[in-house]
Prior knowledge:
Blueprint: E1 2-9, H1 11-22, E2 27-34, H2 55-70, E3 74-78, E4 82-87, E5 92-96, E6 101-109, E7 113-115, E8 131-132, H3 135-138, E9 146-150, H4 154-163, E10 169-173, H5 183-190, E11 195-198, E12 201-208, E13 212-219, E14 225-229, E15 232-235, E16 239-241, E17 272-274, H6 286-305
Parallel strand pairs: 1-2, 1-6, 2-3, 6-17, 8-15, 9-10, 9-15, 10-11
Antiparallel strand pairs: 4-5, 5-6, 7-16, 12-13, 13-14
Helix pairs in contact: 1-2, 1-6
Amino acid sequence: MYDLVIIGGGPGGVAAGVYAARKRLKTLFITFDWGGQSTVSPGIQNWIGTINIPGAELAEKLKAHLDAYRSDIVEIREHELVTKIEKTEHGFTATTDAGGSYETKTVLVTSGSKRRKLEIPGADKFEHKGITYCASCDGPMFADQDVVVIGGGNAGFETAAQLLAYAKSVTLLQRGVEYRADPVTVQKVLSNPKMKGITNTELLEVKGGNFVTGLTYKDLTDGQTKEIPCSGIFVEVGLVPATDYIKELVPLNKYGQVITDPRTQQTQTPGIWAAGDCTDGLYHQNNIATGDGVRALEDIYMHIHAK
């Protein structure tokens, strides 16, 4: 019987794992890989304490940090996916795709989410060659350049707002006639002279040579095909949380995110906490996931030792 099972090897999970080791909680750490979404980024410039770090290097450092502290108290299972969590008389059972079955008193879900991909001709070819899914990671690399944001929800407008700090121009494309973001946010962002919003569009193709040079779309208002010259395309068309394995046990919101108490990261199921991009937190970034993981671990420790 473990005190805790942590699911996921991103910043939130690793932060919780390091704290679990230091607090001597008997922990099983299960992850398929390390680092989370930002492993694909060539340079992360907002990881606090490090001016610039490639995503792959961050993943290595996260693993090394947990390895340095885990001693005999944190057991790591790599290249395994948790397929189901079940309630038991004394806690929970975590089952993995490798056939493992593990008993635990508590569970911390930090399995993250994946960006919904842009699915038009050229999108695969130019991923990481102008197409990016992380403005906070990659935005500064497009300073003084023309960029496009895909997606008219709050995430799209928040991305546009970030990019306006250093891009030459930002054009946001919305599929429908009306933006889905909050009206106040829309008005504020579109008031910037470097910003342009285009609604009622159908994306057609990403153009380029070695890197992105433009994006073509159909203007559904007049039926014409148009092209926007740009060197960067930031995609914000939604996230897919990795929560299928837990959906029978904890309440999820309409997006599939785990609903948590922001003071403690507790879910509505006693004994289960969640942190990072798989939760319904308002903002999702590496540093935020790390804080979520630490906050959850502190509460888990108090929960276990209050008995």
